[in-house]
Amino acid sequence: MSARILDGNALSADVRAQLAESVKEVKARGVTPCLVVILVGDNPASAVYVRNKVAGCEKAGMRSLRFDYPADTDPKRVLDKIAELNADDSVHGILVQLPLPPQFEEKEVLEAISVDKDVDGFHAENVGRLSQGQRAFFPCTPHGVMKLLAAGDIDVSGADAVVIGRSNIVGKPMAMLLTQAGATVTVCHSKTRDLAAHTRRADILIVAIGRPMFITGEMVKPGAAVIDVGMNRIPAGLPNEGKLCGDVDFASVKDVAGAITPVPGGVGPMTITMLLANTLESAQRAAERKGV
Ligand code: NAP
C-alpha cells in the first residue's frame, strides 16, 4: 500500500489565501505588514530563499524590503541596520538570512533583532518562551510541520514521535512543539546509537539531517507519518543527479509509511507560509498596540 501524501503545496495555498484576507483586514486598520530581509554574501541557495520570501510577501499583499550586503561586510554595518529597523514602526518582521559569512557572530546578529520583530523565531527569548509554552513566534519550519500534521489528521497527542536532528532552527524547536502537543518525543542525532531502533518505533518520524535519501523503508514503522524536512541535491552518479531530494528515500518509505511529505512540495512551501503568518501576526500586534 502506498502512503497518503501530505501535500505542502496545497496546504500552503490554502493558508496563504486566508493570510491574504487577514492582510486586507489589518491594512484597512492602517497597518501594512512589512517584512525586511537582510542577505549578506552571494550564497546561491540563500539568494533563492530570499527571492521566494520577498515574492511570497508581495503575493500576500504585504510589503517587503530587501537589503543586500557583500560577503566582506563589517558586521557593525548590519548590526546598525538592524538597530535602525528595530526602531522603525513601519517594519514588523526582520529576518537575516543564514548562514552568515565567517566574520559574523550568528548569535550576536540574531539577538540584535527585536524580540517583537523576530519572525524567524530564532531569538533566545522567543526560544525560551516557546520552551515554556508562552506566546512566541515559532520557528517557521517546525511550525509548518505542525500545520501539516494537523491538516493530515495525524494524532500527535500520545504518539511516539522521533525527531532526527537537533539543530536550533529545526530539530530542537520541533521537539518542543511536539512535546507541547502531547507527543512522547525522542531526539536523535549523529551520536545516537542504533538509530533504526528508534525510528522503527516512531508513530511520527521527523527527519532533518541534511543527508540525501538517508532514511529507508526498513527503518520505518508500518503506518507511520514521515515528515521529510531535508533539502538536498541527488548526488552525482545516481539517477536524476542534481535534482532536489529529501533526507528520506521516498521510493522505499512510501510503501511502508501511512503518510509522507514529498520533496519538493512538502515542508518547504510551509516554511515560507509560516514566515508570512508570523509577519502578519506581528503587524496585528502592532495594530493592537496602536489601538486601531
Ligand atoms: P544541521 O544544522 O546541519 O543539523 C543536522 C542535524 O542532523 C544535526 O543535529 C546532526 O547531528 C544530525 N545528523 C547528521 N548526520 C546524522 C546521522 N547520520 N544520523 C543521525 N543524525 C545525524 O541541519 P538543519 O539546518 O537542521 O537542516 C537539516 C535539513 O533540513 C537540511 O537538509 C536542510 O537543508 C533542511 N532544511 C529544510 C528547510 C525547509 O524549509 N524545508 C528548512 C531548514 C532546513 P549532530 O548535532 O550530532 O551533528
Structural class: alpha/beta
Top-tier CATH class of the largest domain: Alpha Beta
General shape: globular
Fold-level CATH name of the largest domain: Rossmann fold
Order of helices and strands: EHEHEHEHHHEHEHEEEEHEH
Query: How do the strands line up in the largest sheet?
Result: 1-11-8-7-5-6
What is the number of beta strands? 11
Using the CA coordinates, give the radius of gyration. Answer: 19 Å
Helix content: 40-55%
CATH-assigned homologous superfamily of the largest domain:
NAD(P)-binding Rossmann-like Domain
Mean pLDDT across residues: 97
Distinct ligand kinds: NADP nicotinamide-adenine-dinucleotide phosphate
The proportion of residues in beta strands is 15-25%
CATH architecture descriptor name of the largest domain: 3-Layer(aba) Sandwich
How many helices does DSSP assign? 10
The domain count comes to: 2
N/C terminus separation: 54 Å
Largest sheet: 6 strands, parallel
Describe the structure.
Homodimer. Belongs to the tetrahydrofolate dehydrogenase/cyclohydrolase family. With 292 residues, the chain is of the alpha/beta class. The chain folds into 2 domains: 30-117, Rossmann fold (3-Layer(aba) Sandwich), CATH 3.40.50.10860; 140-268, NAD(P)-binding Rossmann-like Domain (Rossmann fold, 3-Layer(aba) Sandwich), CATH 3.40.50. It has 10 helices and 11 strands. The strands form 3 sheets. Strands 1-11-8-7-5-6 form a 6-stranded parallel β-sheet. Strands 3-2-4 form a 3-stranded parallel β-sheet, sandwiched between helices. A two-stranded antiparallel sheet has the order 9-10. Strand 5 (160-164), helix 7 and strand 6 (184-188) form a beta-alpha-beta unit. It is globular. Bound molecules: NADP nicotinamide-adenine-dinucleotide phosphate (NAP). NADP nicotinamide-adenine-dinucleotide phosphate binds at residues 141, 164-167, 169-171, 188-192, 195, 208-211, 229-232, 267-268, 271.
